[in-house]
Amino acid sequence: MSRLPHILLARSGICAIVLAAAAGPAAASDHVVTIEQMRFSPPTVKVHSGDTIVWVNKDLVAHTASAQASTFDSGSIAPGASWRYVASKPGSYAYQCLFHPTMHGTLIVEPKP
Ligand SMILES: [Cu+2]
């Protein structure tokens, strides 16, 4: 994999996500945060405890999604790769990219409905 061009990796990552989203109702509690052009999109995501958040890196450089309170930390997400996190404790979690401190996001976890 590592010898493939970055563009190809990025595209295959995007395709995988599209296919996963189209695959069925199991994705109902999955939330996707796209990392593209040095931004988290959407910048704020609201989920319920137990939901899964997937950060998908569509940039050509690595990023991280690291909570300022160390609640979660993706580590380096390579170009074209993604990272999944299952939300647990309700709260509001500001996070940033450790490589690019101007990149900010917020994860809001609400109690189970
Ligand atoms: Cu970054």
Automatic annotation (TrEMBL):
All residue ranges annotated as the EfeO-type cupredoxin-like domain in the record: 16-109
Range of residues in the leader sequence: 1-28
A single MF term (Gene Ontology): copper ion binding
Cofactors that this protein relies on: Cu cation
Residues bound to Cu cation: H63, C97, H100
Top-level taxon of origin: Bacteria
SUPFAM superfamilies: Cupredoxins (SSF49503)
Localization: Periplasm
Record note on cofactor: Binds 1 copper ion per subunit.
A GO cellular component entry from the record: periplasmic space
Entry keyword set: Copper, Electron transport, Metal-binding, Periplasm, Signal, Transport
Record-given protein name: Cupredoxin family copper-binding protein
Native species: Paraburkholderia tagetis
